[in-house]
Write a structure and sequence with these properties.
Layout (H helix, E strand, L loop, with lengths): L1 E2 L4 H5 L3 E5 L6 H14 L4 E5 L6 H5 L8 E3 L4 E5 L2 H23 L4 H8 L4 H15 L5 E5 L3 H35 L8 H19 L3 E7 L3 H17 L2 E10 L8 H21 L5 E5 L8 H11 L3
Parallel strand pairs: 1-9, 2-6, 2-7, 3-5, 3-6, 7-8, 8-9
Antiparallel strand pairs: 4-5
């Protein structure tokens, strides 16, 4: 199902648009362009990157690392997650609760709990909660989400799902051993079941956010074998996880006019084969948008305006 652009998004009115795919295929370009389009359409828009190695600040030519900032030339709010800061926020928000839960099992000092709260993976876990807080804040009509390369995004989503199921097991385990733990701690520890329940509800709400019908995943790819093969796997795994794959963007496509040299003609023939492969794999399922390779470097708001006219043709 070919499409001339992403105009179908306007009719769908999504709350979140996730850009997923292999590293280096143009996710940040497509995400930034789409965020600019929504802003030009009058929507309060946030552009967020959860890529641990982001390029959003470079793309916008504005430092948006760590805090939500307004890119004045685009009237657009944007932020790149600073994972060190995310861990600090996690400790500030949940550190005391971690202490209550852990100390209910064994009497420990606060510095031990600080060590646990800074364990590897905590920043990844809290990144989704950070997105969720912005989602429910009501400050934005739409959030455009530039995700980490495919494997990282899928791992992040699976981690949240595992965390949710683990908390259910943790609550059941605590009920079984509560009497013994009360005796061990001489009844001084607070019952952590309420805290565990609150964490589980937060994990549940985050999962509902990413699986909501108003959350759309757009997979970005390029017409080359490695990327095409990974795109099929990514789309399949996203669908299995319960996300709504709303479209496919094939970036860096050589147009027929640009293929006049033997080199470019050969590359275009290769690209056409891979595009046909994608069309066969995704026929009648999702729109497939072709984004031509441009002669200019995409950097800065003015070049994003040029890209917006290509991705959202009038």
């Amino acid at each position: 199902m070919s499409s001339d652009g992403l105009n179908f998004l306007d009719a769908l009115e999504p709350r979140i648009v996730m850009f997923c795919g292999k590293g280096g295929v143009g996710k940040t370009t497509c995400a930034s362009t789409t965020a600019l389009h929504f802003t030009l359409s009058g929507k309060r828009t946030l552009l967020i990157s959860t890529d641990p190695s982001p390029s959003l600040s470079d793309m916008l030519e504005t430092d948006v690392m760590g805090n939500v900032k307004t890119v004045a030339s685009a009237c657009l709010d944007a932020v790149e997650l600073d994972y060190d800061k995310i861990v600090d926020l996690w400790k500030e928000r949940f550190g005391a609760e971690v202490y209550d839960v852990v100390s209910s099992f064994l009497p420990v000092e606060q510095d031990i709990v600080e060590y646990i709260a800074g364990a590897p993976g905590i920043g990844d876990e809290f990144a989704l909660s950070y997105v969720y807080d912005l989602y429910v804040s009501g400050a934005y009509d739409v959030i455009v989400w530039d995700t980490a390369p495919a494997g990282g995004t899928l791992s992040l989503l699976k981690l949240e799902d595992t965390f949710y199921r683990h908390l259910s097991e943790a609550a059941r385990l605590y009920v079984k051993v509560r009497a013994a733990l009360n005796a061990l701690t001489q009844g001084k520890a607070r019952d952590p079941l309420k805290i565990i329940g609150e964490w589980q509800r937060l994990a549940h709400d985050v999962l509902c956010m990413v699986k909501d019908e108003k959350t759309l995943a757009l997979v970005v790819t390029i017409p080359e074998a490695l990327s095409v093969n990974q795109t099929k796997r990514v789309a399949e795994e996203l669908g299995r996880f319960g996300l709504h794959v709303g479209g496919l963007i094939v970036n860096q496509v050589l147009t027929e006019e640009a293929s006049d040299s033997p080199f470019n003609k050969s590359r275009r023939e290769m690209q056409v084969r891979h595009i046909e492969e994608l069309e066969a794999a995704f026929a009648c399922r999702v729109p497939l948008v072709r984004l031509p390779l441009q002669c200019f470097e995409v950097r800065g708001v003015e070049t994003l305006r040029r890209m917006e006219r290509l991705l959202f043709p009038s």
